[in-house]
Amino acid sequence: MLSHQSSAAEIMAELAERADPTRIAEMARVGIRTDTAIGLSNRQLQQLARAVGRDHGRAFALWETPVREARVLALLTLEPARLTPEEMFRLAGDFASWEIVDTAADIFVEARLDPALIASFAADEREFVRRTAFAMIAGAAVHCKQEPAATFLAFLPLIEHHAGDERNFVKKAVNWALRNIGMRNKACHEAALGLADKLAASDNRTRRWVGRDAVKYLTDPKRRARLKA
């Protein structure tokens, strides 16, 4: 049975024991990259993460394997307080799927919500590294309840700058970040909707898509009714 004392090798053996290739087709249907998958669900991986606990060094040992489940488990068992910007970029350089990015983004935000770091991710031309920036913004807009509105309003120029990136996993993350900022409170909503309207009127197809989708989302009456002051 796995415990906090379990080694990376023991965890890998347990993953292999639980592997269920029949799950892989379903993963592929929801857009999960499966070329290195062995067939464990995220719920199973979360249970395993609780069993083995956080261990920074062991997490990086798991990351070094190519197995999708090992890498998800690595992210879930990192120690955010020990995670450095250099380590974040090291991990991000290996990102190859939206699922891994979005899992990592929450861990990165838990480590630090650093606008300069996010801007550095956004400046990187690699699709999944750039997605990391906007997945971090989107996640933080929901989970960082005590963060002032000014933090998120300051991300709007970054969103505007990259709204024309036509790559699927970037444009969707940019849109996601804009929508989530707009739902934080009324002040953020007004500013985000203003940017969405501006993008929706663009001559650029991708910027127009990002803007129109955000306008539709942010003007939904039921969502607007939930906004707080």
Rg, Cα atoms, Å: 19 Å
**Mean pLDDT score, rounded?**
96
What global shape is seen? elongated
N-to-C SSE string, H for helix and E for strand: HHHHHHHHHHHHHHH
> Helix coverage percent of residues?
55-70%
Largest sheet: none
For the terminal residues, how far apart are their CA atoms?
A: 49 Å
- Structure classification: mainly alpha
**Uncertain parts:** none
Q: Report the total helices.
A: 15
Number of strands: 0
Range of strand content: under 5%
Structural description of this entry:
This is DNA alkylation repair protein. InterPro entries: ARM-type_fold, DNA_alkylation. It comes from Martelella endophytica. The protein has 229 residues and is mainly α. The protein has a domain of 74 residues. Helix content is 67%, strand content 0%. Helix 3 crosses helix 5, helix 8 runs antiparallel to helix 9 and helix 9 packs parallel to helix 12. The longest helix has 17 residues. The termini are far apart. The mean pLDDT is 96.
Key structural traits:
229 residues, mainly alpha, elongated, DNA alkylation repair protein, DNA_alkylation, ARM-type_fold
Give the topology.
Elements: H1 8-18, H2 24-29, H3 42-52, H4 56-63, H5 68-76, H6 85-92, H7 98-111, H8 115-123, H9 127-143, H10 149-153, H11 156-162, H12 168-182, H13 186-200, H14 205-218, H15 221-225
In short:
This protein has helices spanning 8-18, 24-29, 42-52, 56-63, 68-76, 85-92, 98-111, 115-123, 127-143, 149-153, 156-162, 168-182, 186-200, 205-218, 221-225. The protein has 229 residues and is mainly alpha-helical. The protein has a domain at 1-74.
